Amino acid sequence: ALALLTPTDLAGVRAVVSAGGTREPVDPVRFLGNRGTGRQGVAVAAELARRGADVTLVAANVEIGIPPGVAVVPVTTALELEQAMRDAAGDADVVVMSAAVADFRPSTTAPAKVKKADGVAPPTIELVTNPDVLAGLVAARHPGQVIVGFAAETGDDAGSVLDHGRAKARRKGADLLAVNAVGTDQGFGDVPNAVVVLDAAGDEVGRAGGSKADVARGLVDLVAARITGVDT
Ligand code: CTP
Ligand code: CA
């Protein structure tokens, strides 16, 4: 009876979702990381799978359990994530970039543990820029493929959360960009979330809020409408 109540509007749809946060190695025991836990991306993967999609999760250091029925490709660094997303996105109908990808990585990884010594100045970590995975996926997008990005923003002197989100939506060219305000008590970890969803022109197409599962449901509704062309 339960199966009859499960909407399978995404049966036959192939989806790939990235989640978590990349780690960029400094030496064999240290990395530069971020506060992405994978919760929001995993919730999106679970919602897509629940609605019948065939889901691959590219998981960067995801700290929580993976939903049943979701295929997992584990990755550590931004470069690994880029390769895994490229491989999986080729024949995907839906691509969701939820992972927090490091913008920069150490230019070199020390082959042995970096040691401290009395009277020796601390080392400087030189950084290089990582590829923009989402931009690469948008550039390689095939007709009919729906690409979704996330943007974690804080307001600043240059503009509000939404100002920054609109500019990013236009710059990134993803079909949908889910903008959320992040702070110490919002966005990261096991906390409620709220997103404003913009299209590639920067126009608002929807909002979703509540638990990360609620946000996932709202976002997947917008994705489903773009795939089928029908508002669900
Ligand atoms: N993203 C990506 N590759 C990167 C950086 C970000 O694919 N090297 C993706 C994220 O997964 C997210 C979207 O781009 O879906 C926006 O990420 P965000 O960090 O908000 O934007 P940036 O373009 O990196 O800009 P900035 O951090 O300077 O605000
Ligand atoms: Ca960034």
TrEMBL record:
<keyword id="KW-0288">FMN</keyword>
<feature type="binding site">
    <location>
        <position position="113"/>
    </location>
    <ligand>
        <name>CTP</name>
    </ligand>
</feature>
<keyword id="KW-0210">Decarboxylase</keyword>
<feature type="binding site">
    <location>
        <position position="168"/>
    </location>
    <ligand>
        <name>CTP</name>
    </ligand>
</feature>
<dbReference type="GO" id="GO:0071513">
    <property type="term" value="C:phosphopantothenoylcysteine decarboxylase complex"/>
</dbReference>
<dbReference type="GO" id="GO:0015941">
    <property type="term" value="P:pantothenate catabolic process"/>
</dbReference>
<dbReference type="GO" id="GO:0015937">
    <property type="term" value="P:coenzyme A biosynthetic process"/>
</dbReference>
<keyword id="KW-0436">Ligase</keyword>
<feature type="binding site">
    <location>
        <position position="150"/>
    </location>
    <ligand>
        <name>CTP</name>
    </ligand>
</feature>
<dbReference type="GO" id="GO:0004633">
    <property type="term" value="F:phosphopantothenoylcysteine decarboxylase activity"/>
</dbReference>
<keyword id="KW-0460">Magnesium</keyword>
<comment type="function">
    <text>Catalyzes two sequential steps in the biosynthesis of coenzyme A. In the first step cysteine is conjugated to 4'-phosphopantothenate to form 4-phosphopantothenoylcysteine. In the second step the latter compound is decarboxylated to form 4'-phosphopantotheine.</text>
</comment>
<comment type="pathway">
    <text>Cofactor biosynthesis; coenzyme A biosynthesis; CoA from (R)-pantothenate: step 3/5.</text>
</comment>
<feature type="binding site">
    <location>
        <position position="103"/>
    </location>
    <ligand>
        <name>CTP</name>
    </ligand>
</feature>
<feature type="region of interest" description="Phosphopantothenate--cysteine ligase">
    <location>
        <begin position="15"/>
        <end position="232"/>
    </location>
</feature>
<comment type="pathway">
    <text>Cofactor biosynthesis; coenzyme A biosynthesis; CoA from (R)-pantothenate: step 2/5.</text>
</comment>
<comment type="similarity">
    <text>In the N-terminal section; belongs to the HFCD (homo-oligomeric flavin containing Cys decarboxylase) superfamily.</text>
</comment>
<keyword id="KW-0285">Flavoprotein</keyword>
<keyword id="KW-0456">Lyase</keyword>
<comment type="similarity">
    <text>In the C-terminal section; belongs to the PPC synthetase family.</text>
</comment>
<feature type="binding site">
    <location>
        <position position="172"/>
    </location>
    <ligand>
        <name>CTP</name>
    </ligand>
</feature>
<keyword id="KW-0511">Multifunctional enzyme</keyword>
<dbReference type="GO" id="GO:0046872">
    <property type="term" value="F:metal ion binding"/>
</dbReference>
<feature type="domain" description="DNA/pantothenate metabolism flavoprotein C-terminal">
    <location>
        <begin position="10"/>
        <end position="225"/>
    </location>
</feature>
<protein>
    <recommendedName>
        <fullName>Coenzyme A biosynthesis bifunctional protein CoaBC</fullName>
        <ecNumber>4.1.1.36</ecNumber>
        <ecNumber>6.3.2.5</ecNumber>
    </recommendedName>
</protein>
<keyword id="KW-0479">Metal-binding</keyword>
<feature type="binding site">
    <location>
        <begin position="131"/>
        <end position="134"/>
    </location>
    <ligand>
        <name>CTP</name>
    </ligand>
</feature>
<dbReference type="GO" id="GO:0010181">
    <property type="term" value="F:FMN binding"/>
</dbReference>
<comment type="function">
    <text>Catalyzes two steps in the biosynthesis of coenzyme A. In the first step cysteine is conjugated to 4'-phosphopantothenate to form 4-phosphopantothenoylcysteine, in the latter compound is decarboxylated to form 4'-phosphopantotheine.</text>
</comment>
<dbReference type="GO" id="GO:0004632">
    <property type="term" value="F:phosphopantothenate--cysteine ligase activity"/>
</dbReference>
